[in-house]
Amino acid sequence: QVQLVESGGGLVQPGGSLRLSCAPSERIGGIYAMGWFRRAPGKQRERVALINSNGVTNYAGFVKGRFRISRDKVDQTVDLQMNSLQPEDTAVYYCNIGAQNNVDLWGKGTPVTVSS
Fold this sequence. Notes:
Layout (H helix, E strand, L loop, with lengths): L3 E4 L2 E3 L5 E7 L6 E9 L6 E7 L4 E3 L7 E6 L4 E6 L8 E9 L3 E4 L3 E5 L2
Parallel strand pairs: 2-11
Antiparallel strand pairs: 1-3, 3-8, 4-5, 4-9, 5-6, 7-8, 9-10, 9-11
């Protein structure tokens, strides 16, 4: 069973930056989309950013130009650069990869806390 391993979460002050990374434990065939989601305390999981196999990106409205998703097609990694973080960005962030044959993989999540 392929696993997604996330890293880069932690505690940061308001206005600070973090970079999240996600890598699969083995190669995945036919990836069509990679993305990041988050679940804040007491809230439902929500989409943060997606990138498809053509490199086209899509961001949630609350990102407002602060985050940037990128991927490495060779290593099959997906990163999320987060700038100008605010307390409302506090959440557990999850990596997701969708691929052919109904493959829908999720990481275990990496916590991000924005607090002074």
